[in-house]
C-alpha cells in the first residue's frame, strides 16, 4: 500500500512552497534550509517526471500540476491533522475539545473597522473554531488556494469555488462632530468650508453630485492610499471623508462621527467571500459565513443624518435596516 507516497517532509515542503510562492519562505516555516526545500522539489519532480514550479522573477509559481498536487496534499494533511487531534482528545485525560483553525484572508479596512472588533463574539459563539487572519491590502485577490476563506474585492471564478457577495453597501460622507462647530449653522452646502480628506481610490465628485453640490475635486489636503488610515484621520477631526457605510456604523453609533447629508453612492468595489467546494473544514466555513451574515443584520443601521441640506422642513432620510 501507498507505494507512490514520497516522504512526508517532501509533501510538507511542496504544500508550503506552493502556498508561499517561495522556497525561502517555505524553508523558514518548516525550519529547513533553502537548499533542502529545493532538493525536496527536485526529488519529487524526478519521481513524477514533470515540473512542479517555474520561476517568475523572485517567485516560484506552481505549474498546473504542482498547484493541483499541492491542493490535494493540503486537504489530506488537514484531514490527518484533525484526525490526530480528535484521537488525542478522545484518549488523553482532561484533554480539551478539538479546535478547528480557519485561515481567513480579509481586506485591511474590513478587518480593522468591522471584523476585528467582533472577534470576541465569534469566539464566544464558536469556541471550537480559531480564526487566523491574514490581512490583504491589494485590490487584486491573492492565490485562492492559499487560505481557507478569502474576503476580497474579487470573485473567484475558478471551477470548484463558492463565491458569495457579503452585502450591498454604499459610500457616504462623514466627519467628527466637533469639526462642524467651526461653521455656525452648518449645512451640506458648507462641506467645502471644512478640510476635505482625499482618498487615492475615490473621487469626491460622485458624492457631491448626489448631494446636489457643484462637483469639484479638492486640490489641497492629505491623500490617503489606505481607507483605514483615512477613517482614523476623520475620527481624529482632521477633515471630512467619504467611506463605506458598513465601516463607520460603529463610529456613527458611538458619536465619534456624524453623517453629512443623506447622499449615498455605490462603491466601486464590493466584498466577496470565497471558499473551495467540499473543503475539509466546510462546516466551520459555513458557521463563519452564517455568523458574518448575522452580524451584518445586527449592525446598527444608519440613523437619519444630523447634518442635512439646510431645509429644516425636509422629512427624515429613509434608511435601510440592513447593511
TrEMBL record:
<keyword id="KW-0805">Transcription regulation</keyword>
<feature type="region of interest" description="Disordered">
    <location>
        <begin position="303"/>
        <end position="323"/>
    </location>
</feature>
<dbReference type="InterPro" id="IPR005119">
    <property type="entry name" value="LysR_subst-bd"/>
</dbReference>
<keyword id="KW-0238">DNA-binding</keyword>
<dbReference type="InterPro" id="IPR000847">
    <property type="entry name" value="LysR_HTH_N"/>
</dbReference>
<dbReference type="InterPro" id="IPR058163">
    <property type="entry name" value="LysR-type_TF_proteobact-type"/>
</dbReference>
<dbReference type="InterPro" id="IPR036390">
    <property type="entry name" value="WH_DNA-bd_sf"/>
</dbReference>
<dbReference type="InterPro" id="IPR036388">
    <property type="entry name" value="WH-like_DNA-bd_sf"/>
</dbReference>
<dbReference type="Pfam" id="PF03466">
    <property type="entry name" value="LysR_substrate"/>
</dbReference>
<feature type="domain" description="HTH lysR-type">
    <location>
        <begin position="6"/>
        <end position="63"/>
    </location>
</feature>
<protein>
    <submittedName>
        <fullName>LysR family transcriptional regulator</fullName>
    </submittedName>
</protein>
<feature type="compositionally biased region" description="Polar residues">
    <location>
        <begin position="310"/>
        <end position="323"/>
    </location>
</feature>
<keyword id="KW-0804">Transcription</keyword>
<comment type="similarity">
    <text>Belongs to the LysR transcriptional regulatory family.</text>
</comment>
<dbReference type="Pfam" id="PF00126">
    <property type="entry name" value="HTH_1"/>
</dbReference>
Amino acid at each position: 500500500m501507498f507505494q507512490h507516497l514520497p516522504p512526508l517532509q517532501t509533501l510538507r515542503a511542496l504544500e508550503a512552497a506552493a502556498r508561499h510562492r517561495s522556497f525561502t519562505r517555505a524553508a523558514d516555516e518548516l525550519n529547513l534550509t533553502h537548499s533542502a526545500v529545493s532538493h525536496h522539489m527536485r526529488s519529487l519532480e524526478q519521481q513524477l517526471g514533470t515540473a512542479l514550479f517555474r520561476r517568475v522573477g523572485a517567485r516560484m509559481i506552481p505549474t498546473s500540476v504542482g498547484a493541483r498536487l499541492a491542493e490535494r496534499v493540503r486537504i489530506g494533511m488537514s484531514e490527518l491533522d484533525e484526525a490526530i487531534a480528535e484521537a488525542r482528545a478522545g484518549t488523553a485525560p482532561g484533554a480539551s475539545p478539538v479546535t478547528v483553525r480557519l485561515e481567513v484572508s480579509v481586506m485591511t479596512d474590513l478587518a480593522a473597522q468591522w471584523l476585528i472588533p467582533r472577534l470576541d463574539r465569534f469566539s464566544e459563539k464558536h469556541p471550537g473554531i480559531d480564526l487566523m487572519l491574514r490581512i490583504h491590502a491589494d485590490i487584486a485577490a491573492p492565490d485562492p488556494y492559499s487560505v481557507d476563506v478569502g474576503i476580497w474585492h474579487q470573485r473567484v471564478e475558478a471551477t470548484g469555488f463558492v463565491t458569495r457577495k457579503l452585502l450591498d453597501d454604499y459610500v457616504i460622507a462623514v466627519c467628527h462632530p466637533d469639526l462642524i462647530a467651526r461653521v455656525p449653522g452648518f449645512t451640506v452646502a458648507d462641506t467645502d468650508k471644512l478640510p476635505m480628506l482625499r482618498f487615492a481610490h475615490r473621487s469626491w465628485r460622485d458624492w457631491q453630485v448626489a448631494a446636489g453640490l457643484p462637483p469639484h475635486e479638492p486640490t489641497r489636503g492629505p491623500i490617503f492610499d489606505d481607507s483605514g488610515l483615512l477613517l482614523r484621520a476623520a475620527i481624529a477631526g482632521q477633515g471630512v471623508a467619504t467611506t463605506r457605510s458598513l465601516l463607520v456604523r460603529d463610529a456613527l453609533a458611538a458619536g465619534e462621527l456624524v453623517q453629512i447629508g443623506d447622499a449615498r453612492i455605490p462603491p466601486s468595489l464590493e466584498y466577496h467571500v470565497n471558499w473551495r467546494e467540499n473543503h475539509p473544514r466546510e462546516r466551520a466555513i459555513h458557521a463563519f459565513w452564517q455568523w458574518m451574515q448575522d452580524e451584518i443584520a445586527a449592525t446598527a443601521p444608519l440613523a437619519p443624518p444630523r447634518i442635512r441640506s439646510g431645509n429644516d422642513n425636509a422629512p427624515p432620510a429613509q434608511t435601510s435596516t440592513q447593511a
